[in-house]
Write a structure and sequence with these properties.
Elements (H helix, E strand, L loop, with lengths): L7 E7 L4 E4 L5 E14 L5 E13 H10 L5 E14 L6 E14 L10 E4 L2 E3 L15
């Protein structure tokens, strides 16, 4: 079977404060809406903006950190995967679908106004970005 890739990278602004809940077994889950914007020229050559809203879900420690540090208006870098859920509506019997981005890593890009650097959050751990990128060896054949 051929390899496949399910990876999403978004940079946008949070639309409302995250909602953090706990599953019956005590696992934290955070949900947050993220807006991305696209600027384009319409047929009359006028600039238009289109906003796309994305549902982001974070689990376990990442969810707790999102609940603590992310707020409405925060600018985020989100890396994760697409996941679609299906269920049957109990009232109508209609099949429903929801596609969400399950976050693996989040980087807080908003300035917090206290001189701190941006904070990187990875599923299962909390870390800060390296102060300088590692140089790449030009002899690597790719």
């Amino acid at each position: 079977m051929a390899k496949s890739v399910n990876k999403v990278i978004l940079v946008g602004n949070v639309g409302q404060d995250p909602e953090v809940k706990y599953t019956a077994s005590g696992v934290p889950v955070a949900k947050v809406s993220l807006a991305t914007n696209q600027r384009f020229r319409d047929r009359s050559e006028q600039w238009q903006d289109r906003t796309e809203w994305h549902s982001i879900v974070a689990w376990q420690r990442l969810a707790e950190i999102v609940g603590e540090y992310v707020h409405k208006g925060s600018k985020l870098y989100v890396e994760g995967k697409l996941q679609t859920s299906t269920w049957e509506d109990k009232q109508t019997g209609e099949r429903k679908y929801r596609t969400e981005i399950v976050a693996r890593e989040i980087l807080l890009l908003s300035s917090r106004g206290n001189g701190q650097e941006d904070r990187q959050i990875t599923a299962g751990e909390e870390s800060t970005p390296d102060p300088a990128p590692t140089p790449v060896d030009d002899d690597i054949p790719f």
